[in-house]
Amino acid sequence: MNKQELIDLVSEGAEANKADVAKVLDTMLHTIKNTVAEGDTVNLVGFGSFSMGERAARTGRNPQTGEPIQIAASKAVKFSAGKAFKDFVNAK
């Protein structure tokens, strides 16, 4: 499912205008991105939580030559599904 299909389904279910649903979805995603980028966690009870993790710098190998390369430290986005979400998926 892509973003437009999600907007279509939500607008049908909520009996709302597609433009309004798109605006709400865009605002929600923007807020989640900004909150996680600032280092905070977004916890949606029953659905899951979005947070930021740190990856340490490390040494890797070039798969073509086998020569060692340095991989820089980076930030990663984590999503942990909530119990209700996991239970719903496992029940299907």
TrEMBL record:
A single GO molecular function term of this UniProt record: DNA binding
One Pfam family matching this protein: Bac_DNA_binding
Keywords tagged on the record: DNA condensation, DNA-binding
SUPFAM superfamilies reported in the protein's UniProt record: IHF-like DNA-binding proteins
Superkingdom of source: Bacteria
CDD domains in the cross-refs: HU
Family classification: Belongs to the bacterial histone-like protein family.
Protein name: HU family DNA-binding protein
